[in-house]
Amino acid sequence: MTKAAARYLAGTALLAFAGSAQAQDAxxxxxxxxxxxxxxxxxxxxxxxxxxxxQVLDREALIATGSGRIEDALSAVAGFQQFRRSDSRSANPSxxxxxxxxxxxxxxxxxxxxxxxxxxxxxxFGYIPFSAIAPERLASARVTxxxxxxxxxxxxxxxxxxxxxAGAGTGAGSLGPAGGKLLVNDRAETEASMFAxxxxxxGFVAVSGRWDRGKGFWTTPADQRVPASARxxxxxxxxxxRAVAPVSSDAELQARVLAFRDERTLRFDGADSSMEGxxxxxxxxxxxxxxxxxxxxxxxxxxxxxxxxxxSFRPVLDQRNTPSTGLxxxxxxxxxxxxxxxxRLGLDYRKATGELYEDAISGITGRITERRNAGGTNTDLGLxxxxxLTLGALTLTGGLRADRTTVRDGFYRARTAAGTTTVxxxxxxxxxxxxxxxxxxxxxxxxxxxxxxxxxxxxxxPTLNELYRPFVVFPVTTEANAALRNERLVxxxxxxxxxxxxxxxxxxxxxxNRVRSAIAxxxxxxxxxxxxxxxxxxxxxxxxxxxxxxxxxxFAGSLAYTDAVARGSGAAAALDGxxxxxxxxxxxxxxxxxxxAESGLASLTLRHVGAQFEDDxxxxxxxxxxxxxxxxxxxLAERFAIVLRGENLTDETIFTRNQGGSIDxxxxxxxxxxxxLGL
Length: 679
What we know:
The chain is mostly beta strands.
C-alpha cells in the first residue's frame, strides 16, 4: 500500500470521525409506554454500508433453488466460490472454504461467514459447515465483496457473508408458526425438514431440524471406475433451537444452539469422511439511546477422514479424530452522536484450539506404520472504531482496526506403531500487532443514481490446518507449514447504482484487490506440494448486477469478470504470472421467476462458471460449465403445496477434479418432488 493511499484512507476515516462532533442533535425523550418489539436481529445496518459492493438475498432467494442448499443460493452472487465446484453433498468437508472475487488458491475461507453475528468457520480447518446451515431457517443473506475492518473483520479478507435467522410471525422474513417439507429425487434420496416457532410471552422460540440422505451419484467417470469405486453417499442431520426474549423495552436476549453431523463417501468404498459440531451463542442487543451488541459463543467441532489408495484400493491414511474448539465474542457500542452520525466502538476476540490424530497405514499389509499428532492454538483480539457521517446527499464512512494475533502451542509428533517417537517438534510461539483501515463515500447524485467508492486493508490469520496438518488427495501430498505468516489485503473499488424507475435496479463495480503473503499450495516436486506464503494474489475485475420486476415476473442476475494472477518468487517462482488454482475468470448467473395464484412460484436459474485450473502450475484444466436449475411451488390449499425442483437439467458434465486425467464429476441431472406444509 502506497503512502499516498494510506493517507487517503486515514484522512477519510478521520473526516468521518471528526464530523461526529458537529452532527450531534438532542435525543428525543423516550416514553416509558413504548411497545416492546422483539425482532431477533442485530443492530441496524449502518447508513454507509452501500459504500461497499453489497448484495442482499431475501428469504425467497435463499429457499427457491434447485438443490435446496445454502451454497447454491449464495452462488447467485457472482464471485462467490468454494474451493471446488462440488456442494456439501459430494465434497470433502475440508474443501468447503468460501471466498469471493477469485481470491482463492487453497481450501481455507477468505470470506467471513457470520450467522447471527457468529463466525461459522471451523476452528481447525476454516471450512464452512454448509450442510448445517439450512436455508429455510434464514431471513436473509447480506454479501459484501471486498475487505472490511469491522467486528470480526480479521477474517473478512475477500468479503463478508452475513446470514440472519428468520424470526417468528408471518412476515416476508419470518418462519410462520410451524411447518415442514419432505422431498425425494430420482435416485430415491430424501430431504426432510420441520420447524415450529411459537410465541412465548413477548418473545419466541424457534425449533428446527433437517435430515438429508442418499446413495449419491457417481463422481467417477464410467471409464475410470473399478470394483472399489463408490457413489458419493451422504447423510447429514442438523437441529437448532433459537430463543429470543425481551429484557427491557429496548433490549432483547437471543440464544441459539446448533448441533449437526455429516457423513460422506467419496470415490472409493471406505473413503469416508465426517464432520460434527455443537455451537452455542448468547447475544444481548440494545436499541435504546445507547445502542449495544454483546455476543459470546462457543464451538465444539470434530472431523475424520479415511484416504483410500487409488492403486491398492486400501486405506493408507486414517485421520480418525480432529477435535477443535472455538471460543469468542464481541462488544459493540453505538453512543448517541446525532441523527446524522453513527459511531461504532468495540472489540472482538476469537480463540481456536485443535489437534489432529491420524494413522498412516501400509497399502500392502494394512498395518499401521506411523501415528501422528499435531495441533496448536490461534487467537485474535481486535479493537475497532467506525463512523458513518451523513452530510446531505453525501455519506462518509471511516474505520480503524487493530488486531493482536498469536500462534501458540504448535507441535507435531510422530511415533511408530510400536510407540517409538520418531518426530517431536515444538514450534516457537509468535505474536503480532496489525492495523487495518477502511474508508468510503456514497453520493446520491439524483433520484435513483448513486456513486460510491471505497478503499480498505485487512488480514487473515493462517488456520491450524494450514500450519500443522498435511493432507493427501491421492496421489498428491500437500505438506503443512508452521512458519506461515498472516495474509494482508489492500483493495480499492468504485461503483455506480442506478434505479431509473420502480422495479429496476442496476449496479456496476470495478475493483482492484491484492493479497500479500497469500497462502497457496505450491508444487515443489512431482505429487508433492507445500503450503507457502507467495508474494501475492492480485485480482482486478468488474462485477455487475441487475434486477427487474414487471408485475408477477422478476429477474435477478449478476456477473463477475476477474483477472487474477499469482505472484511468486524463490521456491514459488514457477507459479508467477499464472492464475491461482481453482479460479475462473468468469462467473455469471440469472434467475427469472413468475408468481401465480396467491403464493405460487416458478423460477429458472442459468449459471455459468468459466474454465479453471486444478493446480498452481496450470497443468490440468477444469472446463467451463453452464447449468440450468428450476424451482416450482404450487399451492393446493391454504397451508399445503407441491414442490418440484430440478438441478442441472441439461445434464452438463461438471468437472470438479482433474489430476493428471483422474477426474471427478459434479451433480448430474437431478429431479426432486415433494410436499410442503405450513401452519
